[in-house]
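Hi all, posting the design record for the shared folder.

TITLE: backbone redesign
STEP: 1 of 1
STRUCTURE INPUT:
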């Protein structure tokens, strides 16, 4: 209880002991990764040179986010996860039965005797309590050190991100694309900061990658292995238990991808092959729109009332930290409002804040990132023109990545209400959007019409 009070009331989460413990864990991580690099990647793997930079970026993001939240923000949800998780972990040695009880998604509802722990943050919020439960288990193996727990998160994120990066390099084995894919997956600043440390976004984005990679292995490559199903289950659990709307968007978009992979076997007519993707995209849009409206109309995290409360909370919290709110001019969640908000939400997710909308150093970084996204998008459109549609029609993965990024970007832009929150919540969309642009530009250097003709040839 004394240490919990030290964290909760004194807002001190990093300790002097971390200066000793963290370098030791960090050295051990690099030693083990270097020692087992060939075992993990294989001898003479072309991806070998990307592993240590990717690891370093994840480690940097995890440690930097902790330092920023401690010394710049003075606290935040990541520190609250640690404060509650540290206390629950201490029960493992003081009252093991209570420790096991607190690992329940709804501990107080499941066991009223645990109501004595109702002072812990998030104990009544099952989706957020998932973070506390995970942190509490990791805390036992980290000497109760926030930076060490964040390193565990960064390693898990690295594994999931690396699997997705490896899949991309297998699907597009051209050497010139590897460094570009590495940028898309590992180097985007918002993803480095928000996708590495003790955040919901680290786990949900990792779950997204794992589910995508291993469901592809099962459905397309037909690799029916227990390990693949295990990773699919882990990815599914992280998305369902923390942010359900990931799946509402992801699964229909995956259907687009998988349909494209099997299209030549399912459809013999060249004309039907040509129009199949546009028709399926329209169907996908309506499925996702209906799914989102169903979630928003319920009592869950994305219900209308919950979103309004979150908007006020985001504006108050991030405003106190120098954040900036924005308004899309939407007052309800009707179909007409959703359609009207689509271009506005996508624009704010990928291309804002603009430079003149920044009020802090961190917003300036986000604005420069958005400016680059805007530049690369406009450059791609001007360079490729209408050939973009030929390319999209020939590559199922690109159709998946574009549809997912745009739809997720819309949801993030539509529900965040604040540039500080937006920079965090939009990170799953950023790699997929940039991957689409990279592949479109790559195909532009090829004979797109020949590629299209080859794809549409009946088998």
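Okay, here is what came back for every position:
SEQUENCE:
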């Amino acid at each position: 209880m004394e240490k919990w009070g030290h964290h909760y009331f004194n807002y001190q989460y990093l300790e002097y002991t971390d200066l000793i413990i963290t370098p030791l864990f960090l050295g051990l991580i690099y030693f083990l990764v270097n020692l087992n690099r060939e075992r993990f990647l294989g001898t003479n793997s072309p991806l070998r040179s990307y592993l240590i930079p990717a690891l370093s970026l994840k480690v940097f993001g995890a440690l930097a986010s902790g330092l920023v939240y401690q010394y710049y923000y003075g606290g935040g949800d990541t520190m609250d996860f640690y404060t509650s998780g540290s206390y629950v972990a201490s029960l493992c040695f003081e009252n093991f039965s209570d420790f096991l009880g607190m690992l329940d998604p709804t501990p107080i509802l499941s066991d009223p005797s645990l109501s004595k722990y109702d002072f812990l943050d998030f104990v009544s919020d099952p989706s957020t309590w998932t973070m506390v439960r995970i942190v509490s288990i990791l805390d036992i193996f980290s000497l109760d050190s926030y930076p060490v727990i964040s390193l565990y998160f960064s390693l898990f994120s690295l594994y999931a991100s690396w699997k997705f990066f490896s899949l991309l390099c297998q699907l597009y084995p051209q050497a010139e694309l590897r460094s570009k894919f590495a940028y898309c997956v590992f180097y985007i600043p918002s993803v480095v900061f928000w996708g590495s440390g003790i955040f919901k976004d680290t786990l949900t984005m990792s779950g997204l990658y794992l589910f995508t990679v291993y469901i592809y292995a099962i459905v397309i490559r037909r690799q029916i292995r227990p390990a693949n199903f295990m990773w699919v289950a882990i990815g599914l659990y992280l998305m369902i238990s923390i942010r359900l709307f990931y799946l509402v968007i992801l699964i229909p978009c995956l259907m687009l991808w998988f349909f494209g992979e099997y299209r030549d076997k399912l459809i013999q007519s060249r004309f039907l092959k040509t129009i199949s993707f546009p028709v399926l995209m329209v169907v996908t849009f309506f499925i996702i729109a209906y799914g989102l409206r169903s979630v928003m109309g319920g009592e869950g995290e994305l219900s209308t009332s919950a979103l309004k409360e979150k908007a006020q909370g985001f504006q108050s919290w991030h405003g106190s930290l120098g954040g900036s709110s924005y308004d899309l001019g939407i007052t309800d969640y009707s179909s007409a409002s959703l359609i009207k908000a689509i271009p506005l939400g996508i624009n704010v997710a990928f291309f804002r804040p603009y430079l003149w909308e920044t009020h802090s150093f961190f917003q300036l970084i986000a604005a420069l990132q958005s400016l680059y996204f805007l530049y690369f998008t406009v450059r791609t459109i001007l360079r490729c023109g209408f050939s973009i549609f030929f390319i999209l029609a020939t590559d199922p993965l690109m159709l998946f990545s574009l549809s997912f990024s745009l739809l997720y970007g819309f949801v993030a832009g539509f529900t965040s209400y604040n540039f500080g929150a937006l920079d965090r919540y939009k990170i799953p969309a950023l790699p997929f959007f940039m991957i689409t642009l990279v592949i479109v530009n790559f195909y532009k250097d090829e004979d797109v019409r020949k590629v299209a003709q080859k794809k549409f040839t009946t088998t």
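COMMENT: Residues 267-459 form one domain.
Let me know if anyone wants the other runs.
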